[in-house]
């Protein structure tokens, strides 16, 4: 059976808000080491990968591997019944047909219980190969969200160029064109979450659909920073670290997006 307790339902709410518009139904793979989710969006252009380590939960018990097929929209609606600071406990039996949610208020004067029917979802676990990326860019998550939102005004696709002087986001459309340059910051200039750090083996320039990047940035509330990993001919990785209520590393939410292939004219 699975029994997992988080001190703050708000964390689970943020995760669901970040992925439910990309993925409708998904399997949560529960094991003694934690809870994982991996699913492609309906157009098979992007992939979502979530990992929540057992150590990040207030209490965690999972005796053996258990797969919970869940409609993410329905789960999100149930989580809206919890206050952000309520404790939430997920329970499911080994061969159960439901996953139950128990919400307890901080004062423990209110307990709410909900059952969500499980689904049979066919899905293949995709082996994500370990890739050495030519460039990684760690930057403030809110800054990345603002860039993606602002550039959408001018076009549908963004060209991301990472070089030794910084990272450039460029867009061109019928209305005009624009580009935003972000330079690396030194540790003395800013707090860790406010720094832009670029690790570069070689310069990389790739093109991506802004619609997906804007959907990925719904995870901004999870983390102060985001890491972009780029390499030629492989999907971009947009990674948000997840921290537990006591600020410990708990896992990550990663989005993978295939680059757009520029057609030779």
What is the topological layout?
Blueprint lengths: L1 E5 L2 H11 L5 E7 L2 E7 L5 E8 L5 E4 L3 E6 H8 L7 E6 L5 E7 L6 E7 L17 E6 H11 L5 E7 L2 E7 L4 E6 L14 E4 L3 E6 H7 L8 E6 L5 E8 L5 E9 L8
Antiparallel strand pairs: 1-5, 1-7, 2-3, 2-6, 3-4, 4-18, 7-8, 8-9, 10-14, 10-16, 11-12, 11-15, 12-13, 16-17, 17-18
Helix pairs in contact: 1-2
GO biological process, one term: regulation of DNA replication
Protein name: DNA sliding clamp PCNA
GO molecular function: DNA binding; DNA polymerase processivity factor activity
Strand/helix succession: EHEEEEEHEEEEHEEEEEHEEE
Q: Which CATH architecture of the largest domain would you pick?
A: Box
Based on CA atoms alone, the radius of gyration comes out at 20 Å
State the domain count.
2
* Total DSSP helices: 4
Query: Could you tell me how far the N terminus lies from the C terminus, measured between alpha carbons in angstroms?
Result: 57 Å
Function: This protein is an auxiliary protein of DNA polymerase delta and is involved in the control of eukaryotic DNA replication by increasing the polymerase's processivity during elongation of the leading strand.
InterPro entries: DNA_clamp_sf, Pr_cel_nuc_antig, Pr_cel_nuc_antig_C, Pr_cel_nuc_antig_CS, Pr_cel_nuc_antig_N
Family: Belongs to the PCNA family.
Pfam families: PCNA_C, PCNA_N
Description:
By secondary structure, the chain is mainly β. It folds into two domains: 2-117, Box (Proliferating Cell Nuclear Antigen); 135-257, Proliferating Cell Nuclear Antigen (Box). 14% of the residues lie in helices and 44% in strands. It is built from four helices and 18 strands. It has helices at 9-19, 72-79, 141-151, 210-216; strands spanning 2-6, 25-31, 34-40, 46-53, 59-62, 66-71, 87-92, 98-104, 111-117, 135-140, 157-163, 166-172, 177-182, 197-200, 204-209, 225-230, 236-243, 249-257. The strands form three sheets. A nine-stranded antiparallel β-sheet has the order 6-2-3-4-18-17-16-10-14. The chain has a five-stranded antiparallel β-sheet with strand order 5-1-7-8-9, covered by helices on one side. It has a four-stranded antiparallel β-sheet with strand order 13-12-11-15. Helix 1 (9-19) runs antiparallel to helix 2 (72-79). The longest helix is centred in the first third of the chain and has 11 residues, at 9-19. It is globular. The model has no long low-confidence stretch (mean pLDDT 93).
């Amino acid at each position: 059976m699975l029994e997992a307790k988080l001190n703050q339902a708000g964390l689970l709410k943020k995760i669901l808000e970040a992925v439910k518009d990309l993925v409708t139904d998904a399997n949560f793979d529960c094991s003694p080491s934690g809870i994982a989710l991996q699913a492609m969006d309906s157009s098979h252009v992007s992939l979502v990968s979530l990992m929540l380590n057992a150590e990040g939960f207030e209490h965690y018990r999972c005796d053996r591997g258990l797969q919970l097929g869940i409609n993410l929209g329905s789960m999100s609606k149930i989580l809206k019944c919890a206050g952000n600071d309520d404790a939430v406990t997920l329970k499911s039996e080994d061969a159960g047909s439901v996953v139950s949610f128990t919400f307890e208020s901080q004062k423990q004067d209110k307990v709410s219980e909900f059952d969500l029917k499980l689904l049979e979802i066919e899905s293949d676990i995709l082996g994500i190969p370990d890739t050495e990326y030519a460039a990684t860019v760690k930057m403030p998550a809110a800054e990345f969200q603002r860039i993606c939102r602002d550039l959408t005004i001018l076009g549908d696709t963004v060209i991301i160029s990472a070089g030794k002087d910084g990272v450039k986001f460029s867009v061109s459309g019928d209305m005009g064109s624009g580009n935003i340059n972000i330079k690396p910051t030194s540790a003395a200039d800013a707090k860790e979450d406010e720094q832009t750090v670029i690790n570069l083996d070689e310069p990389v320039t790739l093109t991506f659909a802004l619609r997906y990047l804007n959907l990925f940035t719904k995870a901004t509330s999870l983390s102060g920073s985001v890491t972009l990993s780029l390499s030629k001919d492989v999907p971009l990785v947009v990674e948000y670290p997840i921290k537990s209520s006591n600020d410990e590393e708990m896992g990550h939410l990663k989005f993978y997006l295939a680059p757009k292939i520029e057609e030779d004219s």
